[in-house]
Structures are given as structure tokens and as C-alpha cells.
Design goal:
Strand content: under 5%
Radius of gyration: 33 Å
Helix content: 40-55%
Structural class: mainly alpha
Number of strands: 0
Largest sheet: none
């Protein structure tokens, strides 16, 4: 009887610890507040006006506030998602270097690659413009 007692006490302790830990570690979201449909509608209206004027970054902020006021509004989410993309396009339009940098970021050739040799123009090999002849320079073998 005595060897079973520590095992049972250990099991009870483990289960009690798991139960206590699970009640404290459950992810808790923000307190459930009722959605503010009036504020959401107002922010949607302001956002749509800014969107129609082409002020996508301003519209994005209004739609973000609308989503925050009513997270269940699919209309607010759709407009917000759309203005995020248009806002990014507006930023790129202002600064094209965000997408198309004018200087290469890679300054040196890769390690182990032979130096680049400029190819001969196609007409040099055959004498005909636009036609080139295929030549095996080095065979690695199979």
C-alpha cells in the first residue's frame, strides 16, 4: 500500500497543476464590447469620401477606425484591405526608389564565377545578321 500512495499523490499534484495552469494561461482577448455601429458607419462615410478624392492614406485611417469600432463589419474590412494596397501604391508613386532603385545593390560578382566575357555579336560568327552559330567551348563530360 505504501508505494501506491506517493504515485497517487504525484498524479493528483500533476493534474491539479495542469488544471490551475490552464485556467490562467488561456489567451484572453479584449473585453467583449458591443460593436459601435454608428461610429463604424460614420468612419466608413468619411473613408469613402477620402477614397473618392484619391487620398488613400487618409481613407485607410478612417477605415482602420471603422474596423476597430466594429470588427464584424465586412464592408469596413473590404475597404480597409483595398486602401492598404492603394496607400502602398501612393507611397511608391511618391518615391519610386522604394521599388526601382537606381543603383544595383550587388557590387561584386559571385564567388567562384569566372569573369564575364562579352559575347561576340551574332553576325560575327556566320556573317549573317541576327544568326549565331552554337559552339561547345568546354565539355564537362557525363
Amino acid at each position: 500500500m505504501k508505494p501506491k500512495r506517493p504515485v497517487i499523490l504525484t498524479l493528483v499534484f500533476i493534474f491539479a497543476t495542469i488544471f490551475a495552469a490552464s485556467t490562467y494561461t488561456v489567451a484572453q482577448g479584449p473585453p467583449s464590447c458591443p460593436p459601435d455601429k454608428a461610429l463604424c458607419a460614420q468612419m466608413l462615410r468619411f473613408g469613402k469620401e477620402a477614397y473618392a478624392r484619391g487620398k488613400y492614406l487618409d481613407a485607410k485611417e478612417y477605415f482602420r477606425k471603422a474596423v476597430k469600432a466594429d470588427p464584424t463589419s465586412l464592408t469596413a474590412w473590404r475597404y480597409y484591405d483595398q486602401t492598404v494596397i492603394f496607400g502602398l501604391a501612393e507611397k511608391v508613386e511618391k518615391n519610386a526608389n522604394l521599388v526601382l532603385p537606381d543603383v544595383s545593390t550587388r557590387q561584386e560578382p559571385g564567388v567562384g564565377l569566372p569573369p564575364a566575357v562579352s559575347p561576340a555579336p551574332p553576325e560575327a560568327a556566320t556573317g549573317k545578321p541576327g544568326v549565331s552559330e552554337f559552339k561547345i567551348v568546354e565539355d564537362e563530360g557525363c
